Amino acid sequence: MLDKLQVIEDRYLELENLISDPSVIANMTEWQKHTKAHSRMTPIIVKFREYKEVRKGLADTLEMLDENLDDEMRSMAQAELNELKERNSQLEEEMRILLMPRDPNDEKSVIVEIRGGAGGDEAALFAGDLFRMYTRYADNRGWRTELLDSNASDLGGFKEVVFEIDGDGAYSRLKFESGVHRVQRVPETESSGRIHTSTVTVAVLPEAEEVDVAINNNDLRIDTYCASGAGGQHVNKTESAVRITHLPTGVVVQCQDEKSQLKNKEKCMRVLRAKLLELAQAEQHAEQAEVRKNQVGTGDRSERIRTYNFPQGRVTDHRIGLTLHKLDFVLNGDLDELIDALNTAAQSERMKQVD
């Protein structure tokens, strides 16, 4: 492990020189590539450098213990040695995790699809709540969000909504949000005060660049139609909405949020690329794809990855058995505690597989 870490540090130092080189800075594409690589290496390098300091401290302390010390000094040295050994073990574990192969999509932006499942209008209202939750989380992290397509319900919320979250590492933070989200609360339309259970499905797709997916224009069927709002009312009389069908796979995407047909087509193509990338990766990793498919499920009430219980003010993630009594904070975009716990659990599982 140490040899591998030293190679990484050597490359890290090389990148530091490159990103400060005027000739590299003049080429913005090249400079950004090196900067991103340097940034990705920083966490492991910080740990490695601390590890080397701890190892030096261990050697110095052991050497001190070999000398003739009075009882008080020996006791202090022994206590320091124990602390250094404990930190040494922690760092070795942390570096081992950081050295594990990363998901190649982790640094990508994402396209998020939220759809109402079981529960009708109440499911649509909760789909709106989740849309706000994710956009607020993105705002908190300084990421940009853009609405790609939406189908509003009569009472508010969305039957479905598709949007992009643009930010470095967005996929690494949000990929475990895919699945069925269950809500338990008294609907606004419920006069008797009974608690209803509804579901919403969430899918998080890494955004694909044009270089990731080759699309032949001859494989596309492009239809245009009038965009419509809640209840089927036409919000304009021009055929600005766009539906694209990828004939070889049968994948269909549509966008109607822009007044411009051209802009809707551009958005459609971004969603299509993301879906085709996911499809290609699913074929390469059939087993993982089946797990993910099972996570998203059908939207039935019995299927869920997470429950939002309003009467008790709690959120429970069933995959890791974590319950937080901070529902209001979570729905306002405070997702880091949940996401950190999910990432830690995933890392532990990966380590078991390596072992």
Question: Would you mind describing this structure in some detail?
Answer:
With 355 residues, the chain is α+β, with helices and mostly antiparallel strands. The chain has 2 domains: 2-99, Methane Monooxygenase Hydroxylase, Chain G, domain 1, CATH 1.20.58; 110-349, Alpha-Beta Plaits (2-Layer Sandwich). The protein is 49% helix and 20% strand. The chain contains 10 helices and 11 strands. It has an 8-stranded mixed sheet, with helices on both faces. A hairpin with a 4-residue loop joins strand 9 (306-309) and strand 10 (314-317). Helix 1 (2-19) crosses helix 3 (28-65) and helix 7 (261-284) crosses helix 8. The relative contact order is 0.10. The model is unreliable at 230-235 and 291-299 (pLDDT under 50).
Give the overall silhouette. globular
The percentage of residues in β strands lies in 15-25%
Strand arrangement in the largest pleated sheet: 2-3-1-5-4-9-10-11
Distance between the termini: 15 Å
Total beta strands: 11
Helix fraction by DSSP (H/I, runs of at least 4)? 40-55%
Give Rg in angstroms.
26 Å
Low-confidence stretches: 230-235, 291-299
Please summarize the sheet with the most strands.
Answer: 8 strands, mixed
Structural class category: alpha+beta
